[in-house]
Write a structure and sequence with these properties.
Blueprint lengths: L4 E4 L3 E6 L18 E6 L16 H14 L5 E6 L1 H12 L4 E7 L8 H17 L2 H11 L6 H12 L3 H12 L15 E6 L7 H10 L3 E6 L6 H4 L1 H13 L4
Parallel strand pairs: 2-3, 2-4, 4-5, 5-6, 6-7
Antiparallel strand pairs: 1-3
Helix pairs in contact: 1-2, 3-6, 4-5
The structure holds D-malate.
Amino acid sequence: MPLHVIETGYGVPILWIHGFPLCSEVFANQLSIDGARHIVPDLPGLCRSDPPKDHMTIPDYARAVLGVLDERRVDKAVFAGLSMGGYIALAAARMAPQRMLGLILIDTRETPDSKEASQGRYMTISKVKLNGVGVVVDDMLPKMLTGNAPRSMVAGVKRIMSASTAEGVIAALAAMAERQDSSDLLPEIKVPALVIVGEKDTIAPLADAERMARALPNAKLVKIRGAAHLTNVECPAEFNAAVTEFLASVSF
Ligand code: MLT
């Protein structure tokens, strides 16, 4: 299943893996980061990639994004995962650690869903089947950005979220509900890691980022005060400065 991919720039390959229900466009502000070859797929059924034909697991998404590197003959890359993208980056790290130059975990966590959270996702799936993706957009949009975000930014995020297909949203919800715990993996990730979190993130709060940064042997934690879940959208200058500094620590 070929994915829609944005690709630009020269330098260290960086595979940006977006969150839910978003797409490659959420990284628009990052494509200007110098010294990097940005490779940014849309996950299946989210924006311009075709919906998955079958049930998906988080490792299936990881295989799909590793396939994006294979198609380009890119052997190694920095994996940068935002929220659900972080779950996928960790699955890729388990599957193909030799392909990882560095790891950027953005507003995400390594732990699986609680029983209640998992049940909530299946309730959302039922609502999406009945009423479409607007249910998810209405629920999640207020948590993506802080109340200080400009209206145009909120409208841009809403447009991106609304472009997801119902099949893509349902597949992603089920995959997240069933995802495995990656806690055991973090101490094994020896490449440089950067953990970025918006201090006002309520979806993957600061405590999650602090715990991951402690468990990773070679990690730096960057907290962004003025951001909620989409730190890279809300505070792109601070976010990009952290990534630029991080890329200098990666051997390529
Ligand atoms: C995301 O932004 O990818 C999702 O909010 C992650 C989640 O729901 O666990």
